[in-house]
Amino acid sequence: MLIVQKYGGSSVATAEKIRYVAEKVVATKRAGNKVIVVVSAMGKTTDNLISLAKEVHPSPPEREMDLLLSTGEMVSVALLCMAIENLGEPAEGMTGYFAGIKTDSFHTKARIQTIEPSRVLNELEKGSIVVIAGFQGISPESTITTLGRGGSDLTAIAIAAAVKADLCEIYTDVEGVFTADPHLIPEARHIPEISYDEMLEMASAGAKVMQSRAVEFAKRYNVPFVVKSTFGKGEGTMVKEIALKEGADVSSVSLDEKQAKLTIFRVPDRPGIAGKIFSELGKENINVDVIVQNVSKENFADISFTINIADVDKAMKIMQKVAKEIDAQDVLCDKNIAKVSIIGIGMMNHPGVAGRMFETLAREDVNIEMISTSEIKISCVIKKSDGVKALKALHKEFIK
Q1: Shortest CA distance to 351 belongs to which of 247, 238, 231, 275?
Q2: Domain with 160 in it: what CATH number?
Q3: Which of 154, 321, 331, 360 is deepest in the core (most CB within 10 A)?
Q4: 274, 319 contact by CB (below 8 A)
Q5: Does the residue 200 lie in any domain?
Q6: Which residue from 260, 313, 284 is spatially nearest to 109, judged by alpha carbons?
């Protein structure tokens, strides 16, 4: 079999853990498999590099940030290759560029355009274990790019698709996917099998198990993958295509505390204004989540939307510029919010699910500021201070 394995930062956080990972990788190869390994930076390396950058520049240039942050994964690659070779197996380490990962030019959140895996396949044929730096690629201008936080997940899934791997294993610090974050809800239950759609909604709702773009890529190219613990012995959670079914199947609840709400006040209520606001954000690769526009009064309206808190500074600059251009009154930002969600296949075909969610939050005296729904998810924007309380109440209500 051709197997792609991805190990996150917690899995390679120390020299001891890297040696342990090397033993797992070598055992997989000696069982008769060809192995590609994708690694993240060690432990908190990326966070430490970001802090270091901000010590020398309050708003570091994104091109140089990508160059800096890419070094974390390169360290992991080199050390893991050394550990593998110490166990008697040949290893070939590669940056994202050498692995053939080509991206667009959006620094810090680049998107993969193509993968040319010939070098990877050649090394596999020679009998080497190939170790690839996750989270990075190369732009058309030949500059290093990074794929956003959690981008090593995307690297692993994309490489698995490109080489037509038989299996992709995502190793992390939990035993798989749970009905809620087990660090917040100790009674959360393990989910043995879940659909791409549910996993995608969980990731976009704040679940920390997988990067949402990686799940989207896996669904598009039909790459089944398993999420499992590096240091445990469980079977993990298989993520694959599962047929839709009717019923109030709430499979999980999620909390995302890395959200911010921007409100642009007294927006002229005429065609094209909303398009201008959100197209300007799109040009800067800023994803907008929940959007609410209030009822127009005197031909003016207020528009609120949520984004990832990491994009706040950039988004505020864009919105202040747009507000002047369209003659809006003001732009305000609220970072004291969170998004709590319930997710499940077929959920929206069962009457009363939304009502139960809202009633549960009301019993906990949690005020709902914004609401967003899809066929398999209902999300509510609430105060961050109410986040954990809301999550626990919803898990108790829906996960029996």
Answers
A1: 247
A2: 3.40.1160.10
A3: 154
A4: no
A5: no
A6: 284
